[in-house]
Each structure stands twice: as C-alpha cells, then as structure tokens.
Design brief:
Length: 299
C-alpha cells in the first residue's frame, strides 16, 4: 500500500482513513452541511488533520463535503458494498491554486473533455501532491503545468483557504466512487494584473480547454448556487448574459469565447450527464473555494 497522504489524529492516535471512509465523518461531522473547523499540520507530501489542537498544527481551516457526498451515504448504509470499492487504498491528497490578480480577479480553467475524471468542469489549476513535495510547491507546479504561468519569487503571497472532501463520481447515483481526495485550496495573490498574467498564459491542451477570470461580483453569484438543488432558471437582471472566456481550439490556437453565464450556474445533476455540454459547470468544491475567497476579500 502506498504511503498515506492524509493522516487523522483521533483520540491522540494517528490513523490513515481507508478509501471508503468519510474523512468528515471520522472527524465528527454531523448531519449538517458544515463546514467543520479542522486543525491541520503540513508535512512533505502529506497532511495531518484533527478535530482538536495538536503539536505541530499549522492552521485551523474549514473542512466541507457536498450534501450528496457518496462516502457520507456509504457511512449510513448497514452493509456498504466494500467488495466493489478499491481495496488497499487510502485517501489521496490534492492541492488547487486560486490565483488572484492584483486587480482582484481569480483564474478558473475548464478541464478537457477527454479526461477520465471530471471532464469539462470549471476548476482552479490543481492536482495530486507528489510524495516528496511541499504543498505550496505542488500547487505552483500544477499551476505551471496547466497554465504555463510561473510566478516570480517575491512577487506573490499565499494563504491556505480550506479543505474539501472530493469524490468521483460525485454521487452514488452515478456509480460507486473510484477516486477519493482531500483537496487543499490555496489562495495565491500575485502582484501582477489580470492583463499581465493573461499575456503569459499558455494552456496545456492535454488538461485545459479554456480559461476565464472571475471578479467578486460574478464569483459571488456562482458561489451561491447550491449543488443538490435545481439550477436557477432565470439569471439576476444585473448579471451579464455571457462571460469573456479564452478557448483552446483543436488547432492549438486560443480564441475568445462568450460563455453563457447560465453555464456557470448549473448544479450537479442527479444522473450522470450523457453529453459534454451537460457536464460543463463549476465544480462543487470550486464554489466552496470561491465562498472562502470572497470571505477573505471581505476581511
């Protein structure tokens, strides 16, 4: 079994949660939606979480899961179908970078439609943390690999925003989960403007098919759309009908795209989408991260 990336301190003992266990549940999450304040300690290539303070804890961050989290549902079943779930696996660790420009907009990317996990979803740049990697270094590496952006040393600051328990597929109605992650969202604040950063973006076509910048006003509306409910049928009057986006064509060239704002307000469907367009939306974890970002801006 690979080295555990996510460790829990429960009653003073260090444990590695198994793939089928809800991390939120193990840390005492109740029936509500959360988030739940969680004490965190960073270690190279890993994360230690506890519901209580412990020596070496670096931060106290909100931890949340979606209302339809399949691992929470499996916790409630008397006989979870464990034979059908991956064995000898723990919970993986991911990191995502919410990159903020000096003029207060954040970068989101659309995952390519050919990816086996979460295709066509709008998310911040991010991915797996390597075993020998510091969490910030992993986030900056993913940012560079997906967008081509390498931030000059000394020209950015950063702060951890929160933790998200992620599953794919995201609902039991889509099938049993094949992936289980704790995602650490990092806010990285650049001293460069959106225009300066955009001039240097070179999307990786194997991972990114489009990108956009969201300001606080649009981000607030997107973050307020609740997954687990119906998407709003009508846009608020003050919202633009479309959002300026940059898309990567099949020829590898970038071109402007006016993305309908309604696309960003879609919620996670009950059944697995059968079309690429039906899957395009902002991920539930990203909405959580946007809420945390807006709260941070408000400070």
């Amino acid at each position: 079994m690979a080295a555990a990336r996510v460790l829990l301190l429960l009653s003073g003992r260090s444990e590695s949660p198994s793939f089928a266990q809800s991390v939120c549940g193990l840390l005492g999450a109740g029936p509500g939606l959360g988030p739940w304040p969680t004490h965190c300690g960073w270690k190279r290539g890993g994360l230690v979480l506890s519901d209580r303070p412990f020596p070496g804890a670096s931060a106290r961050l909100p931890l949340q899961r979606p209302p339809f989290c399949p691992f929470a549902a499996l916790d409630q079943q008397l006989r979870a179908p464990g034979a059908e779930l991956p064995r000898n696996r723990g919970v993986d660790l991911g990191v995502a970078v919410l990159l903020q420009s000096s003029d207060q907009s954040v970068l989101l990317t659309r995952r390519t439609r050919t990816l086996s996990v979460s295709p066509n979803l709008w998310v911040p740049p991010g991915g797996h943390v390597e075993l020998d990697e510091e969490l910030l270094d992993g986030g900056l590496r993913e940012l560079r690999e997906e967008s081509g952006l390498q931030l000059p040393q000394g020209q950015f600051s950063w702060v951890p925003l929160g933790l998200w328990e992620s599953a794919y597929p995201p609902r039991l109605s889509w099938g049993l989960p094949k992936y289980h992650h704790i995602v650490l969202y990092l806010l990285v604040v650049s001293q460069e403007s959106q225009q300066q950063l955009q001039a240097r973006i070179q999307p990786n076509p194997s991972e990114v098919s489009a990108f956009m910048w969201l300001g606080p006003d649009i981000a607030a509306v997107v973050a307020a759309t609740e997954d687990g409910t119906e998407a709003p049928r009508h846009l608020p009057r003050e919202l633009p009908r479309s959002i300026p986006t940059v898309e990567l064509g099949e020829d590898g060239r970038v071109r402007p795209l006016a993305l309908p704002t309604s696309t960003l307000l879609r919620t996670t469907p009950t059944a697995a989408p059968t079309t690429e367009e039906g899957n395009e939306r902002v991920s539930t974890g990203t909405k959580f991260a946007l809420r945390l970002w807006l709260r941070h801006l408000g400070r």
